[in-house]
């Protein structure tokens, strides 16, 4: 486990003159923390984050303030930006999501992507009710409060996905109001995937066709798109907007993501030329120029075929983990096509050592690209002893 320095060790003085600040001791503190964090990589099997990357060739960009202020589609009066690379990243994910013309930009992570999708929906339908499943991302109630929307958490079925009959029942009692619905593609509590087409059908049955359907595909989108048997997840399945994480299947040293939306929905919120000469059509305005370079670099290295191989590796590792945990008598469960394996929660020291997220009486093992069969074997050896 990572042992953080004490508060006294890292306190920042008002006047560093004559102190050890900036000294070899400070550098040693940072190197010690880095060594501990890097050492944790060998036991990180419980969170949906990929640690298989190396961006050291991009270190020169840490010497300059890069800012992709405004939207990616228009250059700005601030010249130190990477928007041409951002547009290339967006174009790749737009094609993958089934709409070559989709608008998109690089975000700070899944929460911002979800906020953006719900914001577009709220602007389309100001009186809409916001729906998401009980197993949705934890940010959804907060997003509803930020946007001033009525929020309904919809019950889930035996498959842990949104119960469409429950959605129909909830909206029937709110007849006449539009709906913004977040469909989760890969829940954090088991990898379940909501049915996009079924959601639209349920709302039609409840009497509304004023629907903005947002796909929270932060975790499972690339798996659904690139698995040996692809599954519905994005525009081709009825989504109006999509959120994808960059630090999960691709990998990054910090949270990041991509928000995508149908262009006509973004046209309604765009303010032209006001963000240092660029259009204002994102959430954050000023955005870092470094993240698009990371994502572009990794996508150029992997391409679609490399990502497909990565997804196949994750699914094969999850299948192996399911088999080995069953042999250990821990009753594993795995949703079809998911890289998340649920099993009986082991002792607390095992959970801490292996970074296992636990919910109730189940632990989560998530087979990300850096996780191998050797990790599974060592985990099972620890479970036995």
UniProtKB/TrEMBL annotation:
Listed Gene3D superfamilies: Aspartate Aminotransferase, domain 1 (3.90.1150.10), Type I PLP-dependent aspartate aminotransferase-like (Major domain) (3.40.640.10)
Record InterPro entries: Group_II_Decarboxylase, PyrdxlP-dep_de-COase, PyrdxlP-dep_Trfase, PyrdxlP-dep_Trfase_major, PyrdxlP-dep_Trfase_small
BP GO annotations: carboxylic acid metabolic process
Residues covered by region (Disordered): 1-21
Modified residues (N6-(pyridoxal phosphate)lysine): 248
Regions of compositional bias (Basic and acidic residues) in chain numbering: 1-14
Domain of life: Bacteria
Keywords per UniProt: Decarboxylase, Lyase, Pyridoxal phosphate
Cofactor(s) named in the record: pyridoxal 5'-phosphate
Pfam families: Pyridoxal_deC
One term of GO molecular function: aromatic-L-amino-acid decarboxylase activity
Stored PANTHER family: PTHR46101, SERINE DECARBOXYLASE
Family: Belongs to the group II decarboxylase family.
The protein's name: Histidine decarboxylase
């Amino acid at each position: 486990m990572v042992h953080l320095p004490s508060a006294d060790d890292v306190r920042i003085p008002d006047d560093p003159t004559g102190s050890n600040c900036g000294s070899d001791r400070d550098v040693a503190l940072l190197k010690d923390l880095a060594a501990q964090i890097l050492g944790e990589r060998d036991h990180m099997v419980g969170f949906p984050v990929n640690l298989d990357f190396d961006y050291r060739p991009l270190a020169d960009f840490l010497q300059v303030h890069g800012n992709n202020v405004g939207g990616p589609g228009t250059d700005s009066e601030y010249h130190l930006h990477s928007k041409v690379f951002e547009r290339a990243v967006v174009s790749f994910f737009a094609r993958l999501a089934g709409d070559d013309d989709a608008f998109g930009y690089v975000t700070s992570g899944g929460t911002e992507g979800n906020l953006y999708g719900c914001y577009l929906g709220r602007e389309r339908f100001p009186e809409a009710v916001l729906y998401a499943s009980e197993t949705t991302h934890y940010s959804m109630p907060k997003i509803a409060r930020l946007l001033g929307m009525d929020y309904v958490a919809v019950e889930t079925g035996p498959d842990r996905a949104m119960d469409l009959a429950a959605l129909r029942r909830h909206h029937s009692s709110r007849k006449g109001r539009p709906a913004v619905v977040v469909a989760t593609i890969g829940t954090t509590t088991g990898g379940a995937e909501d049915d996009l087409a079924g959601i639209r059908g349920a709302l039609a049955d409840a009497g509304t066709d004023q629907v903005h359907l947002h796909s929270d595909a932060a975790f499972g989108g690339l798996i659904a798109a690139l698995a040996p048997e692809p599954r519905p997840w994005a525009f081709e399945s009825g989504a109006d907007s999509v959120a994808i994480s960059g630090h999960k299947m691709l990998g990054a040293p910090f949270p990041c993501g991509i928000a995508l939306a149908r262009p006509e929905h973004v046209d309604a919120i765009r303010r032209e030329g006001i963000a240092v000469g660029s259009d204002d059509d994102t959430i954050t305005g000023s955005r870092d120029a470094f993240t698009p370079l990371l994502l572009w670099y990794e996508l150029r290295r992997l391409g679609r075929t490399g990502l497909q191989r990565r997804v196949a590796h994750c699914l094969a590792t999850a299948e192996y983990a399911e088999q080995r945990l069953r042999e250990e008598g821990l009753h594993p469960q795995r949703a079809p096509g998911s890289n998340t394996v649920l099993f009986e929660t082991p002792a607390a020291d095992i959970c801490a050592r292996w970074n296992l997220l636990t919910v109730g009486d189940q632990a989560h093992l998530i087979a990300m690209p850096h996780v191998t069969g050797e990790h599974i074997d060592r985990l099972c050896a620890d479970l036995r002893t």
